[in-house]
What does this fold into?
Amino acid sequence: MSSVKIRNLRKSFGSLEVVHGVSLNISDGEFVILVGPSGCGKSTLLRMIAGLENITAGDVIVDDVIINKLPPRERNIAMVFQSYALYPHMTVRRNMAFSLKLAGKDRAEIAEKVAIAAEVLDLEHLLERKPAQLSGGQRQRVAMGRAIVRNPKLFLFDEPLSNLDAKLRVQMRAEIKEMHQRLKTTIIYVTHDQVEAMTMADRIVVMNEGNIEQVGLPMELYYRPQTLFVASFIGSPAMNTVEGKLSANGLFRFSRGAEINFGDASPRSGGDKDVVLGIRPENINTRRQGIPIGEARIRVVEPMGSETLLSTSVHDETFVFLDRDRQEFSVGDTRVLFAEPTDFHFFEKTSGERLA
Amino acid sequence: MTSATAFPVAKSRTRAGDALTKAVIYIALAMMLVYLLLPVYWMIKSSFQSNFEIQRIPPLWLPADPTLKPYENAGLLIPMWRYIYNSLFVSAMTAFIASGISCTAAYVLARFRFPGATLILALILITQLVPPITRVFPVYFLIQSFGMLNTYSGLIFAYVGFSVPFAVLLLRGYFQTSCPPELEEAALMDGCTYFSAFWRVILPVSLPGIAAVTIFTFLNAWNDFLWASLLLSSGEMKTIQVGIGEFSTEGGSTEYQNAFMAACVVSTLPALILFFFVQRWLVGGLTAGAVKA
It folds into this structure.
């Protein structure tokens, strides 16, 4: 178990800087997930921690020791790759024993550690198979087994579930979480899937264009996103956002002229201000609870069993909302949408920063 | 009324056309096969016939009285087995050295970014654009100045020089497309140095590519006539190709036709055997399961 400090880390490829001075503290035993869209620098950050990418500037500190100059083999960090990266010419047993063999462990110790890891991951019956003879989920478990036999200081996961089908992904999510609860090793996990981040992480780091947008607990990010980017990125279906003007007395005006009166529930804008208003689909209702948003014309109905996802048009803006009351909806119906004033989020239009 | 009889069965309008296309393709392929295999067949069957039978008109397509005498005679008329040994030694050493050099060079060029890498690649490519005949004098004089004329090492040195550029280009492409960098990175994370990652992981995974390069360099050396006749042409040092070439002008094409054909058959065997043994590597599939496709 180890703590990790990342201090003002930068990475450039030629003249192009892709990570712009990122700082982050990760506590001993914490499960931290780096999440963000493709190309946001999260994998590059992970690879710098692993030692697979050179660091342009800044420090990676593990257990109060700067490890920037150490080659990957001397960092005692295990990594699970998106593509599994199993050695195709070796059996599962040899794949898992490879690092221990390189470390010069004796045969009995290797056999014992492999057996324990295989039991934990339910791989015992597959030990003599080669990777080509395994399914996607089994390969993923072997990749995890290869990482845990080493008892490393730190686990790095680089989008490990993105090649699995939806059902297996849910199962593997639970397995990884369970593994963390059992081993209590520090984990840094990269994904672009915000559902993975929300369901697994102790803390989430949202990255965008080489910068950290927000670090926080999953629910904190969900309920109090600090930027418009985080608000739109976290949550599925995504938050509804509408541009408009917010007056000093709490009146939000859509670009087409319609208004919502928030009164005291709105942040103080100090005069007319260009803002982006956000509301999550599950916070919208048709039960007349809260304040009215406007009359919505239903454009698309997507029944999902326990809930129904509806795409609607309100004041020429798109609003998506989730109905959990099992109401009947048809395309073309009109309903008035409501939401509690406290469930709305306000962001400054130009900077995207949250208005308190 | 059952559903099976309720609906008309759609008939394909293009089926007859497809059959015709297939027939044309098969006929063309068969003709091509005959064109390619007939000389080989003629060589093999002649090697078991007497000269009289070979020259009979109309030709005899099967040996009337098969005999191994031509093989015996070939060994007596020319030092065939010595020539074969020469060829084998030179080709095997060339294949071994060229594969070794080219797979390490190709790995570095495929994986590492360093100043001058593009220039090196361009220079390697340029060597492939120069017609081989223009290299005759420089290479000859170079080998001569090293005192390596009529030695195995002289010819091996030349062959390795000719084979490495193409082998590097071929293997570089192989490393880039068939050998994912994550494998090497996983090995580095597991405790390997770059060299041990190459040795323990990349090399075993790349065996199909390396086998292809080895066969290619071996066959190039085995089949070569030009350089062998220039650099290794005296006495018993000749390679089988040069030996057979000379035999053809020393009676091989006239009174010893069957012995000549027997020598030709023997000269094709080592390459055939090598191909038989390494073809399973060429089929590939070793990287299956390494990474999710």
